Amino acid sequence: MAKLSDPSKIKEVLTRHGFQFSKALGQNFLINGSVCPRMAEACGADPNMGVIEVGPGMGVLTWELSQRAKKVVAIELDKRLFPVLEETLADCSNVELVEGDVLKLDLNRLIEERLGGEQVCVCANLPYYITSPVIMGLLEGGLPISSITVMVQKEAARRICARPGTRECGAVSVSVHYHCEPHILFEVSRGSFLPPPAVDSAVIRLDLRKEPPVQVLDEAFFFSLAKAAFAQRRKTAANSISASLGIQKHRVEEALEAVGVEKNIRAERLALEQFAELANFLCPGV
Q1: Coil vs helix vs strand at 96
Q2: Tell me, what CATH number does 115's domain have?
Q3: For residue 243, with 0-12 CB atoms within 10 Å meaning exposed, 13-18 middle and 19 or more buried, which class applies?
Q4: How far apart are CA 6 and CA 175, in angstroms?
Q5: Binding site for S-adenosyl-L-methionine, residues?
């Protein structure tokens, strides 16, 4: 596998299998020989743990995970890569390849059938275009996972991990902090990929909480309200929530004042606790 950090070797393998990169699938394969071991270590995989990888590419990270985990289940959408992976992972008996779209697969069933009884974490170099949907699907799917360690676009990493109440936060930030403790681990230059993307990346780790840090009466409404608050970032939270959820503006302003903030506040200035209080105040039927 060390040779797969050599661009000439990678191109030789891909050419031999007739593989061409797909822009539509956001294919930028991680080839940096020093980054993959760091990611594999950071995800906490050990001989008692199973790992789900999304988009294994040529299998460089997959191989590193296989050396640490009890089993690795690698989900790959592009069936053209299977012959490549069968070659590069030929000596990895604890790796199972699964063809499918991670956004459509029944991950609870997959974990039960392929990793039943094991502790499970997720580790992946995510295509940029599905970063948020994949992360939100993993967090909101009620999956028995302990952590999510993923490579994402550097700007996305800052937004995902931004604490509610700070300028860079958004609806995803609110959901992430509700479900887990996020950490930006390290940055990765664009030259670590083939082909190199137009931006740099960062590795983040999301440690799932056993209990959320705030209590809400209705989780679905809480997340809907957070999304609505950021739907029109140039407007006040009251205007955005009112327009998106159809709640009378004076009612939203009344709720904002009840939780101790000014009625013309913008969403990025609301802390997680204030989002929870606001959602509980406006929750239908309360």
Answers
A1: strand
A2: 3.40.50.150
A3: middle
A4: 39
A5: 28, 30, 55, 76, 101, 125
* pLDDT at residue 78, rounded to an integer: 92
Question: Does residue 247 fall inside a structural domain?
Answer: yes
pLDDT computed for residue 35 by the predictor? 92
Helix (H) or strand (E) holding 32: none
Does the predicted model carry a pTM greater than 0.90?
yes
- Tokens standing for residue 7: 């661009």
163 and 231 inside one domain: no
| Regions in the chain scoring below 70 on pLDDT | 1-5, 286
Q: Where is the binding site, in residues? A: 28, 30, 55, 76, 101, 125
Q: Residue 46 to residues 72, 118, 120: CA-CA distances in angstroms?
A: 11, 11, 10
Q: How far apart are CA 84 and CA 66, in angstroms?
A: 17
Give the pLDDT score at 24.
Answer: 78
Picking from 121, 56, 114, 133, the residue whose alpha carbon sits closest to that of residue 89 is 56
Both 163 and 278 in a single domain?
Answer: no
Q: Give the pLDDT score at 2.
A: 46
How many domains are contained in the chain?
Answer: 2
Cα distances (Å, whole numbers) of residue 88 to 99, 116, 282: 17, 26, 54
